[in-house]
Amino acid sequence: MSDNGRETITEGEADRFRAFAEEINRYQEGFARSGDGQRRRNFHVKSHAGLSAQFRVVDDIPERAKHGVFAAPHTFQAWVRLSNGFSVGMPDWFPDLLGCSVKLRDVPGASLLPGEDPAGVQDFLALNQPYLPADDARQLMIISTSSANVFTAPLKLIGGLGLAHGLRVMLWTLGWSARRLFLRSVATEDFHGATPIAIGPHAAKFMWRSRQRRSAVRGTPGASWRNYLRDDLRARLAAGDLGWDFLAQFQVDPVKTPIEGAYGWKPADAPFVKLAELTIARRDLGSAEARRDERLVDGLSFNPWHAIAEHRPLGEIQRARRVIYQGSARYSGRDTGPAG
Description:
Layout: H1 13-34, E1 47-57, E2 75-84, E3 98-105, E4 121-127, H2 137-146, H3 153-161, H4 163-180, E5 191-199, E6 202-210, H5 228-239, E7 242-250, E8 273-280, H6 288-298, H7 316-332
Antiparallel strand pairs: 1-2, 1-8, 2-3, 3-4, 5-6, 6-7, 7-8
Helix pairs in contact: 1-7, 2-3, 3-4
């Protein structure tokens, strides 16, 4: 990698990652046993919508960004899944992260997971938080799996991370949890890829910036107390298109913009540059076509390693995600989905 985007692989990493994947499978099995017995995703079980979309690479992007899907102006067909982050389908008022997973289709280039991933897809996974308070995969595992039980989570965080870091994670959680209680729309959220990917020879981070105004829909008449975020999406899509801009930050140096960990890069150090637009066309979420798309998307596996070489995920957390996501998809019977 150029721009100092170099990775260091430590001794025993493969064994640690396999252990993480086995731990996540046990985590999934615990939720299956305590529920209806069905094997589901490890996280992001509840979908608000599974949608077809268009991803348009814009004109006049910086020369260093012209690699992979951004090599030239082009429009890709895509699948989009908007979801809650928890491991069971909780009501929308439950304090939780939100996810946006996008799978581009008919993408030219060699797959990073040959034999598993159908050629021609590129996944971008993001959360509605600009960073995760983790320096490495072990810390992220502790933070993620502690969420299984809100009552024991503080003990697990402090026991696994130490007092100072555990308290810092709890404060971070309280911050976004309080905001989530007042959130009424997924459409107005920005989503961040907290861990870096390659854009050609450069290390980069990305985000989806919403083009919807927060004041556009103040409430949906008749909205369900359990599924009001989907009800809001239904109302917005009945009224018009939804859109997000794809923005990228390019690494400046390994100190200000490190590839390890999941902390955000400051825009003052690495300004955001618009590379593409995602558009979800107006539709009736209750139509037969929309329900068909939703069933298809909900059966897909999303993985940052469903990617072409020009957009290789970077850093230790990303390498761990490759093993964990593959194991989780096999456990739950998910598919990467059709390329076309």
